[in-house]
C-alpha cells in the first residue's frame, strides 16, 4: 500500500496583517519572484522558488489590496487604500511613480508588453497608465457597474477583464474602443480572475463555485461547486491537470481539472485564505491568509521515499542568482531585524 503523503509547506513570515493578494512573475534569467500585498501597507518581494525574503516596498499609508510584477520582474506595482497606485523599482525597492486616485485602489495589473498599468477600485473607473509617459494623464476606459475587485489583461493586451465587488459577472472590454464586448455571467460577485499561462482559460471564483471559461470563445468549460465559499483559485500552468482553491474554511484544496475530484486538502493556515497562486513552473503554489502568513506548498507532497528536491527536476534558484535584487534593495534595519526574528 502506498504511504499516505502529507504536505508540509514553507511558511513565510514578515507581514503583520492579513495577506490579501499574491502574484508570481514569469520565469526570468534570474529565476521567478513572488510579491505579496497585505493590509500592513508594505508589499514584500520574495524568491518565488524558496520563499526567501528579498525586500519590502515602503511608502504606502494604507492597506495594500493588490500587487503585481512586470514580465521581466524589474518593476512592481501596488494598489492601496491610501487612494494611490505605486510603481516600484524591483531591484532597489525605490518608489518610481505614485498615481493618485479619488478612492481605494483594489486592483492593478501590468500589460504583457510591460508598457501599461491597469488600475481599478472603488471609484468604478478603469484607468490605463502609459509607462513610457508616466506623467501623462491616464486613459479612462469606462465606468464599471460597480466597485472593481479584479482586473487582468488578455489577448496580447487587446482585451481587459474586470469584476466587481457588489455584482456578479466578469466583463471583457475592448481596449481600443473601451466597450464591453462580452460578459461572463455568474450568480455571485467574482473575487478572483486568472488567465492561464497558455491563454486558453479564464479561472474565476464566485461564491462557492470555481469556473473555467474559454478565453477565446468565452464559453463555460467547467464549473465545480466547492465545499465552502472560495475566494481564490489557480490552474496549474504546465499541464492544466489540476487546480487549487482556498477560502473561508482556512484549507487549501487541490482538485482534478477534468473531473473536479478532490486530490488533496492541505491544512495549516489559522484564518481564511484570501489568495492562492501557482508558480509559473507549476511545481508549487502559494497561499496567503488572514493569519498574515504566506505558505508555499509543493504540488506533489513528499514522502520519505522521494528523492532529494535539489535533483528532482526542480529549477533551483541560488542566492547568487537573486543577489542583484537583494543588493541595494532599501529596507529599514528595524523591519530587517523583525524579519530575522520571525524566521
UniProtKB/TrEMBL annotation:
GO terms for biological process: spliceosomal snRNP assembly. One of its GO terms (cellular component) is SMN complex. CDD domains: WD40. Residues 317-343 have a biased composition (Basic and acidic residues). WD repeats lie at residues 57-98, 266-298. Pfam families: WD40. It comes from the Eukaryota. One of its GO terms (molecular function) is RNA binding. InterPro entries: WD40/YVTN_repeat-like_dom_sf (IPR015943), WD40_repeat_dom_sf (IPR036322), WD40_rpt (IPR001680). Keywords: mRNA processing, mRNA splicing, Repeat, WD repeat. The keyword Repeat applies. Belongs to the WD repeat STRAP family. This is Serine-threonine kinase receptor-associated protein.
